[in-house]
Batch of 4 targets.
Target 1
Amino acid sequence: MITQAVIMAGGLGSRLGARTKEMPKGFLEIGGMPIVEQSVRKLIACGIEDIIIGTGHCKEYYEELAKKYPCIKLAHNKDYADTSSMGTLAVCVPLVKESALILESDLLYDSIGLNVLINEMRKDVILSSGKTGSGDEVYLQVDGDCNLVKHSKKKEDLESIYSELVGITKLTRSTLDLMVKYMNDHKADQPKMEYEVAMSAISSSCHKIGVRKVEYYTWCEIDDENHLKRAVEQIYPHILENESIRGIRREVLLNPGPATTTDSVKYAQVQADICPRENEFGDIMGWISKELSLFVGAPGRVETVLFGGSGTAGDEAMISSCVPQDGKLLIVDNGAYGKRMAKMAKIYGIDYDTFVSDGIHRIDVEALKKAIVDGKYTHMAIVYHETTTGILNPVPEICRFCHEHNVVTIVDAVSAFAAVPIDMDRDCIDFMSSTSNKNIQGMAGLAFVFCRKEALESIKDYPMRNYYLNIYDQHHYFIKNNQMRFTPPVQTAYALRQAILETKIETIEGRYARYTACWKVLVEAVKRIGLKMPVPESEHSHLIVTIMDPESPKYNFNDLHDFAREHGFTIYPGKLSDAPTFRIANIGDIRPEEMREFTVLLEQYMKTI
Ligand code: PLP
Ligand code: MG
Ligand code: MG
């Protein structure tokens, strides 16, 4: 899997005169965004996790960009004024692990070109196009196997012209090393070497570099005013059209998970077939597990154990794996999911009690602490965010108290993780569950159990009440074999990988702020319309709102559902057993403007009853 990209961005951009005197070319804005930022976003959407930018002229611009995108690493070419693109590429090469996409910074391109290279069987391959007539073309000559022989800006230098260089290439580290060596060997006679010179030299002598031609590829580079004009008037609109053609119909899910996903997460599922017992796939699962752990703990503090299954599988794994034979469990029940954990404990014959609280008011923490102080319980289980009503339980306070009293803590964070910032050490959470399709904004099919390191070791010899869902066995097997015990949902894992990349960029704090902005729009509208909310606003999680059914006899949830669905919004009925309600969740890839659109529909419907 290609996980790295290099953008060569050291150049002076002198042919653009005043425009780029005090700014790198990549920061030319088209459609309201610097072209290099558009490139960064396209790379991320294609699953690139590490973007190395080789800087030179006006590097401060890139330093600012790197603050916005934590996946950017900078490498500075001190000699940028006296070297050329190969000099800038050379300072980036030490950061490339196995293979990377190499891009010029002055490109405007259709992202499909990245997929073309990612899907190429050849490990070293140049993207090229048919005739552009752009001016400043770099023509390519190839051999019978479509490998690069020679390049030139002058047609007459070549025996035949196969295609035009785009400026996006896939190269392995070993090829890059050969190019750097070639540059160093020719420093004296060619101090200003373009990277394509090194590619041609390597490919025509010792190490073939393939050329992939896409005849009608939409792209351009921007070296001068004419290029810029063509970019704005022709290429940019064409790219927008291509990308909108590939867009997937927008359905906004306002049910509490599975949540709305980005198109890039949806597309990440489309991958070459792979046997999940291959090391390559094991590495992806290992990466997912490590990255999930880093969301909830310092490096090395948390192990994330993955299971094929929904969120309930995570809960059942915890309940069946984490309580010893002689343990006693206290389960906080203030909604459907606490009740579900109690049902599991009953089925497994675990000694347990419930601490029952209604789903509408904050749980009585003092009464719960009293039960914990009692000394009867070895373990306590609680739901972080009770999705039944949208109440956020005071989990850190309760879990810290449990720890002071030697009680192991088990937390269902299925609908809290990746929206609410959690630190398992700080918050004294020993075991915690979640799933791939809620706030992490991936697809359904993987359950996670986050375990504090010591907590995981402590359950090693506990009775194995369940075969498929045993946490220690699942963990141990994976560590030993770099494989899951049983067939994982392969495509869901790829989507989750993409969802993790996107969460790292938004950050969990940023995501909670976006969710809160959507919640605000919703709550303000609900109040304006005159609907009632059973849970006091101060107790709202900002992730889901429970709304009382209106009193009108003409109200029918199914009618409201169908009306909203016709307009691209999916809503969900309530889950309170004793009050007629419906719920609006605002988790997933949704924006406040979309929530506003929904509230207009809600208001329209309410006027009809
Ligand atoms: N726990 C909580 C708090 C939930 O919100 C949900 C689902 O909404 C679950 C558990 C069960 O998850 P799943 O439906 O993925 O099994
Ligand atoms: Mg050029
Ligand atoms: Mg150029």
Target 2
Amino acid sequence: MGSLSNKRVLLGVTGGIAAYKSAELIRCLQGQNAEVRVVMTPAATEFITPLTLQALSGNPVSLELLDTAAEAAMGHIELARWADLILVAPASADFIARLCHGEGNDLLSTICLASHSPIAVAPAMNKHMWGNTATQKNLHQLREQAVHIFGPAAGYQACGDIGEGRMEDPANLCSMASALFATGLLSGKKVVITAGPTREALDPVRYISNHSSGKMGYALAQAAAEAGANTVLISGPVQLDPPERIKTITVESAMDMLTAALNAVEGADIFIAAAAVADYRPASVAEQKIKKSDDEMYIELVKNPDIIATIATLPLRPLTVGFAAETENLEFYATKKLHQKKLDLIIANDVSDSSIGFNSEDNRVLLVQPGSSKSLPTMNKVLLANKLIEHIAALLPSSTLQTPQP
Ligand code: C5P
């Protein structure tokens, strides 16, 4: 699998003889597990039919800005939001000029204007058009605007000339596109992550829970998916939207989370327990709402199963990563937990500092693994998640599955 796994590529096709190569380009992108949607300029449809590109991409091809039916299905702003990358191939001299000047007079240029995602263009034109000062000035400006210029290649041209201006080969374009997405570190790997709190019911309306926001686990799931992993997120009740393109299983109690984790972990390479699992649950759940008849009330609690410790002792287990929230002696307690639970890595944080941890946007962690530890500076949970995924990916052995630690 390539590093375009889980990526959404919006392929813009403009008018030029190289438009026929878009068909092969779609196949290459899909071969790297990208999802592809195509937007064509009117001139492009003179060179290759929308139907061909629709059949190959498996998605409707968008053609016009003012098409009410198409806008109702997925409008230009939604397409701009949808794309992780806009790749315009072939990009004509005219389109390059329009992109450079921020014009929004057709669907593709409007999407480019509305998008925050990276844009790459693969110029394709006659060698004199390519060499023209105006074209070169436009390309210079696009580079300044952080637009990626892929190619062009040199060689035989449809007009009979030989020189620079041929569209770069689809396979090369695919490699250049994947290179834009940093890692692809977990391509072909399966990652299971638990997140959020659990709720332990007392009766039909009451429960015991905690303040975990789920943000760290969700950010890790996003980062794992971004790194190309087939990601399963097992989430307790949180106020976060389920992340796109990640299989999310919602659970309530620790017992439910354990069942979901045991099911999901089959074939997994990595298990990350970011959930704040309740340590105890009521020994019994009242069928009816408990009445406040007495002045005092006692709840009998029983211990919940330790999910991560259960996973860590499976005969064929994934690389197992836990969290430790401590208020003192961070490294000492984290190391103890690492050994007790037989983990490969503990991500420890000091929850006595209210600016980090549980409900905040930031976190500062200490990474503790057998024989070594490393602290990371305070950072946003999303950035931290990317760093953690990089660190965890580097711990993976070349073979997929681990055996339990002695
Ligand atoms: O023992 P403690 O709760 O401090 O351990 C924290 C780590 O263990 C976290 O990774 C948490 O997700 C995991 N855990 C678990 N099941 C439990 C309790 C904790 O997976 N019942």
Target 3
Amino acid sequence: MAANPSRLAVYPGSFDPLTNGHVDIIERGARLFDRIVLAILVNIDKAPLFSVDERVGILREVFDDHPNVEVETFDGLLVDYARQRGADVIVRGLRAISDFEYEMQMALMNRHLNPDIETVFMMPAESYTYLSSRLAKEVFALGGSITGLVPPVVEARLRAKGRRA
Ligand code: PNS
């Protein structure tokens, strides 16, 4: 394989909202790759909690001090977006066995679509293995504490939206 002087990875997701589990994976990815693009899926079928623009703003704010972390949006096929950006790695987090089947299907489908793009799985710190955006939203909506589960800026934005966010 030819030497790759600057390796660009894409970390795709909905990030609705960004959790500390995502932050953990992004920091690991930023250490491993020269540059990592956080690629927010524009999904017109879903009713998101935060708009795409709000999510872009949150991710940029949280990773403001990471010069090799970029934030973008994409729609369509992930492999097409990755190729267009010049990335040959897709990063995904694996929390537990329950993630495995879905992640394996996506990784193998993406490999089928473009064999030149490799999916790299990373495990977050054990303390985040039970954490998901869906549960963080639910806990917040039901009045539970999400401190330590999401970055402070996400908690503040959720509070600004109100409990029924
Ligand atoms: O972390 P999420 O929210 O589960 O992310 C899912 C995501 C964005 C990685 C996935 O839905 C995706 O890649 N969508 C793009 C559409 C696509 O490429 N589909 C075919 C390959 S499986």
Target 4
Amino acid sequence: MNFKELGLIEPILRALDTQGYKQPTPIQEQAIPILLQKKDLLGCAQTGTGKTAAFTLPIIQHLHAEVDQNQKRQVKALVITPTRELALQIEENVAAYARHTKLRHAVIFGGVKQGAQTRRLAQGVDFLVATPGRLLDLIGQGFITLKHIKYFVLDEADQMLDMGFIHDIKKVIKQLPTNRQSLFFSATMAPAIVKLSQQILGKPERVTIKPEQTTAEKVEQSVYMVAKADKIKLLSQLIKNKSVDSSLVFSRTKHGANKVVKKLDQAGIKAEAIHGNKSQNARVKALEGFKAGKINVLVATDIAARGIDVEELDLVINYDLPNVAETYVHRIGRTGRANASGEAISFCDAEERSYLKQIEKLINTQLRVVKDHQFVDSRPDLPPAKKTNNQRRSPKPKRKVSRKPSN
Ligand code: AMP
């Protein structure tokens, strides 16, 4: 199956050719025909599967046919997504895929001054990508109306709930016209997510892309048993020995991420941290430096890493193992994207062994244990460390609404 056979039009096919996409990914193959028929969609898929193109391409195609260039532009398509990085990344994709159309697109997110965003809105926008807080702010100030929305996408719904955006989302939904096409994406389908999807979607078609299909098979995975105190030495050694161009290191906490960067720096390795305590500018700068190859190692927390879209990420290192097994799949999905293969290395200390067991159960694979390294820790398993607040994951509907990611 190629993109033409999916029913996409020539200006989009040309853009995909420029992007170098040869074949649709499984989610694109399944979702695009459904969406071109203007049906609602419930998609269970994570970032890294090609889902952004799966939902933006059909919307671009609809808008291309409908938008009257002589009329004042109204926002007709809206994507809401939890983080600034994701919002930027989606809009970047829209810009690339719509380059041969006359569509106007914009992205809005918090943490920066609103002037540039409102100026762009005033010029007229067809396709808007937004984070929930800034969207509501600008609606409140009269810069945006949702009255003309025909296409609505809620992206990364599970992350939205985790970040306490549920009330914001409900406020947005209330303002949408009932006659619209709605798309809902989530990596997981916990009961709270399903409930939310029912409030947004009519009778949706469903598409499920299992993470195993997209990552585990393509990513070479291994684990190093190592004492907590030796992790930093092992990390420096691995990065130096492997001499990879770009690696993403995951830390469970913001403080941990900063510490790792400091130590790598001392070891002469150029690294930057990316997490919610960094300003938007610092995050964008770090990401650009990384993409340009000026920085070889990016150390990120899970939420901040969601939006990192780097074509050739060679290596993912789990400096800390996540205490939620699905997060492991999200993390290793950062490498081995689309057609590339990748490598994922995990560090596991005595307290993290139970997390490792949960991960292996989820992915139905036993990770290869690397035994020939200098810092092997063969102590018996210890019970996991007590969870801190920011490690707890389950959505708490009563939690205070926070508009800025805290991690
Ligand atoms: P996403 O899951 O939307 O974040 O996409 C993951 C990555 O795959 C992005 O870097 C896309 O540019 C890339 N991508 C999406 N679709 C394709 C395709 N059909 N062929 C090659 N790369 C793709």
